[in-house]
Design goal:
Blueprint (H helix, E strand, L loop, with lengths): L5 H7 L8 E6 L9 E6 L4 E6 L5 E7 L2 E2 L2 E2 L18 H6 L2 E2 L1 E4 L8 E3 L2 E3 L11 E10 L2 E13 L5 E11 L4 E10 L5 E2 L3 E6 L9 E4 L3 E4 L2 H5 L17 E6 L7 E7 L4 E7 L6 E9 L2 E9 L6 H6 L5 E2 L4 E11 L2 H9 L12
Antiparallel strand pairs: 1-2, 2-3, 3-4, 4-5, 6-7, 8-16, 9-10, 11-12, 12-13, 13-14, 14-25, 15-24, 16-23, 17-20, 18-19, 19-22, 20-21, 21-25, 22-23
């Protein structure tokens, strides 16, 4: 909403929260019982949920009445129902709602592994951590109302790390965009690793047969033999198939790292979603293509080092660390488009040659 038009809307709507705003809610049934969340609507057909009790992630997002994210069959769960074990992957997968955004980190993410004697399960703990110091408000930027949500998510233990993720989410009411500003702070006194995966997910109906992906990256690298065989269609969404293996591709090499992006365009729905990220912060974008029946999903995930476990990242000499009282930052922006000229603009930034199987 434009600030300059506020008076006009007040003549027709006694309470502007009927048009846009943030609503504080608590879930009261099933595995989600007790979960503290915020429902956000921007008044311009963009609606999302932000879960304070799940690391200020975004489990649900709709644009123009259409579901955008992927809600896994495990559903929404309270972090207090999370049974953390060192079994590798099962505990995480039973709590993984997917949603539009699941954050993986802070000190480890990616595949389960053993790193320097420490057992590390899949994708870290941060998405199952309750945020602290959460607050919401409305701000003004130029002539636009902005809905703001902030909080801290801590990963800490006695005689171990003390890492805090300071998250700020900005939802714009005139333009359909969401910004995430993350600051990772080491509040301890020893160096600590930082491995982040921004697990951005798409599901039906945004994800459907014939939808197409676009990337700013220059190189595409399949991670398995099955992914290699699927290279001719790596950027095309296919029909779901029973028992089909997932495919993962790493996208790297950016001419303009600060303005890296990936886009999913559903021509039938006439909408597109753009993920903007800084490849200096997240140099590897992982494309997780799951065309399996019942687990029909697409992840376009900015990462610090792909989906490798911390042990493999360390062995490759790619491990990023920050010292005590040091910080590092991550910035993401999501754009939701419904105008053909805007969609054509973003698609024009990608070369057709990048779709070729040999275009690594």
């Amino acid at each position: 909403m434009k600030i300059s038009e506020k008076s006009k809307y007040l003549k027709k709507a006694g309470d502007l929260s009927s048009l846009y705003g943030i609503r504080d809610i608590t879930y009261n049934s099933g595995k989600a019982k007790g979960v503290h969340a915020y429902e956000v609507k921007n008044g311009n057909q963009l609606n999302l949920s932000v879960f304070a009790d799940r690391g200020l992630d975004i489990p649900m997002l709709e644009f123009k009445g259409k579901n955008i994210g992927f809600l896994a069959k495990s559903g929404i769960s309270s972090p207090f129902s999370y049974c953390y074990t060192h079994d590798g992957t099962d505990s995480f997968l039973r709590q993984f709602a997917g949603g539009f955004l699941t954050t993986c980190g802070i000190t480890f993410s990616g595949a389960a592994c053993v790193d320097e004697g420490e057992k590390l399960p899949l994708h870290g703990r941060i998405s199952n951590t309750v945020a602290e110091n959460v607050y919401v408000c409305q701000e003004e930027e130029e002539d636009e109302v902005i809905l703001k949500l902030c909080g801290d998510i801590r990963e800490a233990r006695l005689f171990g790390e003390n890492m805090v993720l300071h998250r700020k989410i900005l939802v714009y009411t005139e333009s359909n965009r969401v910004k995430i500003h993350d600051i990772v702070e080491n509040q301890g006194f020893q160096k600590q690793p930082v491995l982040m995966i921004y697990h951005v997910n798409f599901g039906y109906p945004m994800l459907d047969t014939g939808a197409r992906m676009y990337f700013s990256s220059e190189k595409v690298q399949p991670q398995t033999e099955f992914a290699r065989k699927g290279m001719p269609l790596y950027d095309i969404v296919e029909e779901p198939e029973d028992n089909r293996e997932e495919q993962c591709y790493y996208h790297t090499g950016q001419k303009d790292p600060e303005n890296s992006f990936a886009m999913l365009h559903n021509e039938k729905l006439e909408i597109a979603a753009v993920i903007k990220y800084d490849a200096r912060q997240c140099p590897v974008l992982c494309e997780w293509k799951s065309m399996q029946s019942g687990d029909y999903a697409l992840g376009l995930e900015p990462t610090t080092s792909g989906t490798k476990g911390r042990a493999e990242v360390r062995k490759a000499g790619e491990l990023r660390e920050i010292g005590g009282q040091e910080t590092c930052e991550f910035h993401l922006e999501f754009l939701f488009l419904d105008r053909s000229k805007d969609i054509k603009y973003w698609s024009s930034l990608c070369k057709e040659s990048r779709r070729l199987p040999g275009g690594f």
